[in-house]
Amino acid sequence: MKFDKPAETNPIDNEKVVSQPTPRIEGPLKVTGTATYAYEQDKGLKNVAYGYIVGSAIAKGTIENIDISKAQRAPGVLNILTYKTIGSLGKAGRNNAHLLAGPNIEHYHQAMALVVAETFEQARSAANLIHVKYKRSHGQYSLVKNIDSSVRPERITGGPAYTSVGDFDGAFSNADVTLDQTYGTSGHAHAMMEPPASVAIWEDNKLTIYTSHQMINWALKDIATTLNMPIENIRVNSPFIGGGFGGKLFVRADAMFAALAARATKRPVKVTMTRPFMFNNMPHRAATIQRVRIGTDKAGKITAIGHENWSGDINAKKSEAGVRPTRMLYAGANRMTEARIANLNLAEANAMRAPGEAPGSMVLEVAMDEMAETLGMDPIDFRILNDTQVVGENPDKPFSQRRLKECLQRGAREFGWRDRPKTPGETREGDWLIGMGVAAAFRNAPVQNSAARVKLTRGGAVIVETDMTDIGTGSYTIIGQTAAEMLGVPLSQVTVRLGDSDSPVSAGSGGQWGAASSTSGVYAACLKLREKIAEVAGLDPKTADFVDASISDASNSYPLRDIAKEHGELTAEDTVEFGDLQKQFQVSSFGSHFIEVGVHVVTGEVRLRRMLAVAEAGRILNPTSARNQMIGAMTMGAGAALMEDLVVDEKVGFFVNHDLAGYEVPVHADIPQQQVIFLEDEDPKSSPVKAKGVGELGICGVGAAIANAVYNATGVRVRQYPITLDKLIHQLPDVV
Amino acid sequence: MRPFNYHRASSVKDALAIAGAKSNVKFIAGGTNLLDLMKLEIETPMHLVDIADTDLDEITTTSAGGLRIGALVSNTDLAANKTIRQHYQVLSRALLAGASGQLRNKATTGGNLLQRTRCPYFYDTNQACNKRVPGSGCSALEGFNRNHAILGTSDRCIATHPSDMAVAMRVLDAQVEVKAANGDTRMIAMENFHTLPGDTPHIENTLKAGEMITAVALPPPIDGVHVYQKIRDRASYAFALVSVAAIIPKSGTAQFAFGGLAHKPWRDKTAEKELLKGSKAFTDALLKTASTTEHNKFKVTLVERTVAAILAQAEEAKA
Hints:
The complex is a heterodimer.
Chain A: E1 2-3, H1 27-31, E2 49-55, E3 61-67, H2 69-72, E4 77-82, H3 83-86, E5 104-105, E6 111-117, H4 120-127, E7 131-136, E8 155-156, E9 159-160, E10 162-165, H5 168-174, E11 177-185, E12 197-203, E13 206-211, H6 216-227, E14 234-237, H7 253-265, E15 269-272, H8 275-281, E16 288-296, E17 302-313, H9 324-328, E18 334-343, H10 357-375, H11 379-385, E19 390-391, E20 394-398, H12 404-415, E21 428-429, E22 432-444, E23 450-456, E24 462-465, H13 475-487, E25 494-497, H14 514-537, E26 545-547, E27 550-552, E28 557-559, H15 560-567, E29 570-578, H16 581-584, E30 588-600, E31 606-616, H17 623-642, E32 648-649, E33 654-655, E34 674-678, H18 702-714
Helix pairs in contact in A: 10-11, 10-18, 13-14, 17-18
Chain B: E1 5-8, H1 12-21, E2 25-28, H2 34-39, E3 47-50, E4 59-61, E5 67-70, H3 75-80, H4 82-87, H5 89-97, H6 101-106, H7 109-114, H8 120-123, H9 165-171, E6 175-179, E7 185-189, H10 190-193, E8 212-218, E9 225-231, E10 242-248, E11 255-259, H11 269-272, H12 279-286, H13 298-318
Parallel strand pairs in B: 1-3, 2-3
Antiparallel strand pairs in B: 4-5, 5-8, 6-7, 6-8, 9-10, 10-11
Helix pairs in contact in B: 5-9, 12-13
């Protein structure tokens, strides 16, 4: 079906199953350890061999010699793959650095060899016997030192690298009140719970690969490109995924090596990555330097707003485009944004949860707070004064729906914003300085075409098949709910099969488009199945109702089970194809974050006390899993604000804190209380199911709200994330 | 991980006999650090002697009025022990500030003393590290050293000892009970148990080859306010940036030991004499020899402020 005009009333509006708080339908499998994740997909396989990846010990240079002779003789070793034995590989466009090093080394821990052995332990042990002689060359590892050599890329995610409206320079220099500040955000690791893992099986010329991947169809294409083989000969299966956050959007060395090793050894091969290897081998969210300039009139109306962003990537490819929120979020006649990128020889930079918008809002929303203070305005009033129903830099384009003001006001009421400390640094409880902060949450809600196949089986059960993935987000459940709603059956009667490339191609999980897009695909397929069922039942599909597991009209009612029994299995398949509604309307989700922190007056330790988010994201398909997405994103944003930092050793050229002891992410004790409120909402211009993305909204703005709360608590404005105690301690009140 | 021989000792005597007969031996108890290091081939023992079946898991009173804590007593059990909670609060608090619940269930008293540094360059075998490969250099000196030592450092190593428990034991002046293969037992004061890096950062304690920690002896309880304050970037499950163990008596001089500052739990009894003149005199003396980097100089301020606050609060409590 084509979706090119706003959705009208449709069966989803009944909300008998959809929008009801629903536990995950695959939950029992997960809590009993019976959900098979990629590395466990060897059940029933015989002769499975294990691969262990060897990564480069240097950041840049060439391999002069790679001596595998000792490793080859080690117990259990079956094969050792290197660039010398593998031959030429293709390179998928979605990969920046090559998956396989040799002889050139592009970054630290770039995969260089795979040892295949009878056991994992034997492979790991033999890997340490490989001796490599390198020729090091000089690399660039510091963003700060490479600002001057940075370039403006042709494009960044979602638009050009440079935009300009009106006369920014003129308006800024003539503004009554101005702000010009520079901020820094740190590099972040996805640090998902399940490391990348793959099991590959070759039979004749066919490759089956069980892997952990967010986008099955991308994986299929990119494996085909990498291995120079026809796509028809590959099957990718990824039914359960232990988190991705963007780190599993692209094929990695585990999949490549598993496939190559399985072909070479004629045995199924399992490959995973160790945790310390992931940080420098996999993509990461690039660190940024961002400059924001805001000019207003005396009343606080923005007359000029500018945002520049610098980040680095290998081959100066992927910009962490922090300017994105500034292009749209607030009104203002004169504006400019620019993203520039430096060429750094670190592991590749790429998408991580709300790319651009997350680090961009960490900065823009602090700048807004600083500006409000300079103006002597409440930061909520300042945002509302500059609220807009049209895109900031394109007033001809209205938002499909935007209830930011309501999110801010509702949050303020619920949180007790009125009682916040008016003067920074003055509220104290024992050893703790207390402060509150607010920020707007804003994330675009793109959609992608998505297909599904729906079956009514002979036994009257419903089966949904699509290559959509569930990366811990709750896709299984909302897809099941959609089919149950559309066909009028209980959720327990629906089986959902995900992640298999033999199924119709879905939107996949990324860019917070998964939920709205994939359920719309299921909706489309269900509409077709309804027609088929009506046809065999002899009813008019336009007027027939699907309730109580029956199809009925005013005079007849037939249980679906009876129809299936009589007419055999019925199958329908369809794709939702999104037209240009997103060109006419800017579809985005909105929210507000409210934070209360305590800052230890002696040590400067920052501890969260309360977190509240109010979100507007269209129809909430499953309040349980949507809340789960929000609080997870808020937690991740708290990590970015307070502790997460991929530290670059500029001498060696690598992320030095490359394990979970060195790269700290929030633990339970860091997140004491989280509340999420969803506005009752439908956005008919977004998708047939009237839902918008919510999975990335929650990380946008939360970091800034924390920074603003720290300022409110201490009177110290930290402009370099993460806000660790060493950045506060010298400005805290004297002890005693 | 290199292949190794596994021996399960039935008694302390048995463990010492096995260890005495082999070379390149490690005792293993909880294994919470050793196994990680073996996987990375930072530790490559040929023989592991598992002491889980020995009788070292008891806490008993000593004739001196203190406690003898068996080397196998888990961090969880020790922290929960009633006498420890009532009379050695600083130790209980330090233990509970360390690691996570799961780790504390496995980690033992003896093993905790022997855990190795968390310097990231020590853990990455591609990097130069004098502690891991003597003479290879120290990547941390000019690298990322935010959480490295500022006291007792050398130009070979600026790593810290990561334990919380050991800091409390240092402030208590505990003694480490050690048994040799010939059955001889000796007591090593905590002060002398861990060593400074000097020219030999790969040597971290004064245990001799084949010796085994059998217990830690605590002196009789020390009256006063017991404090263990651990300062860290996140609220739990993180190594200390700085930790402070303090016992502040009603009258007389307070005792302080510090974690996160040095290659060993740090206590400076000479500096403690300055406490009579106040907090600043003490921390000035304590930090007189501090050698800091751009990344870790904040630790000086952190120590000064934390000590001042602890003393001020103790004064308030007295008043």
